[in-house]
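Entry for the shared binder. Reason: the reviewer on the internal report wants the predicted structure included alongside the sequence.
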Amino acid sequence: MIFDIDKIERKVLFMQRNLAKLLNHKKEFFI
């Protein structure tokens, strides 16, 4: 259970980082 939660948390953090990068690229594109 603990290991599964750790993997899910890592995936969420990874997705959040990717979303932040995409948002930053979109901001640069629109500006």
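Summary line for the report: The helical segments are 2-30.
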